[in-house]
Structures are given as structure tokens and as C-alpha cells.
Amino acid sequence: MDKLMDNPWFIKILALLLAVLLYSSVPSTSKKLTDVNVPGEQTTETINDIPVKVYYDTENLVVSGIPNTVDVTLKGPITHVQSAKALRNFEVYVDLTNAEIGKQKVKLKIRNLSDKVTATLKPASVNVTVQEKITKEFKVEAEFNTNHVEDGYSAGTPEVKPNKVKITGAKSDIDLISYVKATLESNDNLKESISKEAPIQVLDKDFNKLNVSVDPETVNVTVPIKSNSKTVPINIVKKGTAPTGVTIESITLDEKEAKITGNKDVLDKTENVRVEVDISKITDNTTLTLPVIISDGITKVTPQLVKATVVVNKAEVQAEQADQAEQEKTVSSVPLKIQGLGDNLTAEVNDPTSETINLVVNGPSDSVTGLAPDDFSAVIDLSGLTEGTHDVKIQVTGPTDVKWTTNQATAKITITNNA
């Protein structure tokens, strides 16, 4: 080997062989060593709810009719289809950058998808409407459910800030606007004013929501809540009858007025409240604690209790009062007297046949005790009556300090003409 290595031709031949070997080991640039020419497996997959992007002049136009999502069916090599399905790195879009105003049919397109994969869109095309975008200012109307207000309180007129908003949308939608409302939601029984942010709702005449944009989207709504109350006098109502010999000189209350709360309509009709004092059990000066009585519809009264001071006058029962005690007595056989009978006429009493009546007399005992038939006059007045039988009222007169009733109010009289 030493001799060979010293030979220059051997070295040249060895170098040539190494160069050839090295050249043959370098791979071709036109073909990868890892490439394997094997036929790929094909597949079909459907991907649902792919968002649709729309490209148009958003400052001046409004587009409607574009679906939010579509279904895309992909067909191609399984690896490419599965990659697209997993990554969703493709885009479905509608290009309306040069669209004219009006209704038109446009195709949905797809991009950023491998050229080895074909896509089918469902739907493949849609009917769209391109309209002019306009902005108009509207006044906001506040809505509030008054059923959430506590009884005895009422809601005032809601205040909206700002009270006007700018609404942007298609001219056809703007022309349909009938209501711009800010609804204040509350589930509480309110006793105090409330202030909250409320979203704006834009509705047509049938209360359908319109697809428009609102600036601002919310407003502040303040609803004043106030108590329904008024001040009224407290009336004193006496119940029962004072005991014998007791006179109620005065009744005074420590509070003369009360504050009542309730429905406004009821308050308007309520002029007073009352305290009832049962005087049948009062025999001496006393102070009573009594409730203030309110009518239906009044939910609250202040004060609820008052003190009533009762002053009485106890008179001694006099002996003469005993003498004046009521007594009843029957006075019998009071004779009937006829008057007013015309000339040439005679009268006969048919009933009562005794020509007398009986009286039941009531009055002070000293006046009733000594009464007799002569103390009364029972008269039958026949003035103006002619021949025939008549029922005539019996007119009784007697002492003025007694009362009486008769056992017979009329008499039957027969009048005869003697001419």
C-alpha cells in the first residue's frame, strides 16, 4: 500500500472513482426520495353552518336576504377534506362591491380552499335586496309597568335621557317605524323613584321588531314614585245612649287630623276619617285610646290610635222626674157628640151602638192618674153631609201633656131628612 500510495497514477484513478461514486449518490432535484406514487383515497363531507361574509359599501347601502350561514359539501382526497373540515380556514362570501340598488340574484362563492377539493354550497345563490342606507332621528317613548308600584304609591311621567336617538337602516325599514320604545324592567314593589338603563326597541305598527341599528342602543329612564297621601280631619262619632243622669259635655281628641295613604281615586273621594266613642258605658270623666277608622281603599293612616278625652255631667235624679215617669191608663165611655148637622136633618149613630169610645192614654203619671171621660171631647162633624149612611172620622181632643189612641177611629151615621 505504501508503494501504491506513492504512485501518482494510483492516486488519480482513486480520486476519479470517488468522484463518480459521490455524483451518483446525490438525489435528483426533480423527484423527492420520499415521494410514493400511490393513488389517494377520495371522500365527501358536509360541513354545516359556515358563516357567510358580505362585501359591500356598508356606509351607504343596506343589504338584506343574505343567509347568516350555509352548508358546504367538500369532495376530494380524504386528507385534504378532513383538514378543511377541522380548520375551517376557507371563506364563503358574497361580493356586492359593485352591486346596484334593487333586487337581484347573486351567487355565493368560496375561497382559500385547496385546489384538490371541490365545494358545493347550499344554497348556491340567493335573492338579495340592496337599498339605500339612511339615518333619521326619533323620539323615545318610555314604557313602565305600573303594577310594580306598591299600593298607596303612584308613578309619575317617566323621563328619558337622551330622549331622541338616531336610527340607521334601509329606507323601507325606516318608513315602517311606528314605535321607538325604552322598556324599564323591574320586579320589585316600588316605593321610591327608579332610574335604570333601558334598551331601545324599534317596532312597526304591528309591534314587529325592525332590523335597524340604533345610536345609542340604550337610554336612561327615570320613573318618579311618590306616595298617594293627604291630610283629613278626624271626626268624632258617638255610639249608643248615655246612662240615665249622665250628660256628655264634651269629647276632645289629642290629634285633630290624620294623614291617609291609598289609591288616588279613593283619596279624592275621602274627606275625613272617624273615631267612634261608645258613650253608653261612660259614667265619669275618662280618657280612651281609640283606633282611627278608615274607609275601603285607604291603605294606611297616621296616627292609627288617638286619645279621646270625655267630660261628663252627672245630674241627680230629682223626685219630680220620678213623678214624670210614663204611665198608661184606659179612659172608657167617652161620649160621642154630633155637630154640623143641617136643617130638617136628623142623625142616628149606628156604630158604635153605645155612642161612646174608649181611649188608651199615655203620659206622665201625675197627668194620667186623674183623667176621666169628661176630660176628653169626641166629636162627629156632619157638616155638608146629606141624607144617607156615612162613615165619619171621630175627632178627639184632650189634655196637651198626654197622648192617646182610640179603639174606633170612625163612626157609621145614618142621616134622615124630616122635611
Quick recap of the structure?
The protein is mostly beta strands and 419 residues long. It has seven helices and 31 strands.
Radius of gyration: 58 Å
- Under CATH, the topology of the largest domain can be stated as RNA Polymerase Alpha Subunit, Chain A, domain 2
In the CATH hierarchy, what is the class of the largest domain? Answer: Mainly Beta
Distance between the termini: 208 Å
Helix content: 10-25%
What strand line-up does the widest sheet have? Answer: 26-31-29-28-25-27-30
Give a quick account of the main beta sheet: strands, pairing sense, barrel closure.
7 strands, mixed
Q: Characterize the overall form.
A: rod-shaped
Q: What is the average of the pLDDT values? A: 86
The chain-level structural class is mainly beta
User: Which spans have pLDDT < 50 for at least 5 consecutive residues?
Assistant: none
Strand count: 31
Output the keywords.
4 domains; seven-stranded mixed sheet; 7 helices; 51% strand; RNA Polymerase Alpha Subunit, Chain A, domain 2; five-stranded mixed sheet; 419 residues; single chain; mainly beta
Write up what this structure looks like:
The protein has 419 residues and is mainly beta. The protein has helices at residues 2-6, 8-25, 78-87, 171-176, 264-269, 319-323, 365-368, and strands at residues 42-55, 61-64, 69-77, 91-95, 102-107, 109-111, 118-122, 125-139, 141-144, 153-155, 159-161, 164-170, 179-184, 194-203, 213-215, 218-223, 225-227, 229-239, 246-253, 257-262, 273-278, 286-291, 298-302, 305-314, 326-339, 345-351, 356-364, 377-381, 388-397, 403-406, 410-417. Strands 26-31-29-28-25-27-30 form a 7-stranded mixed β-sheet. A hairpin with a 6-residue loop joins strand 28 and strand 29 (388-397). The radius of gyration is 58 Å and the shape is rod-shaped.
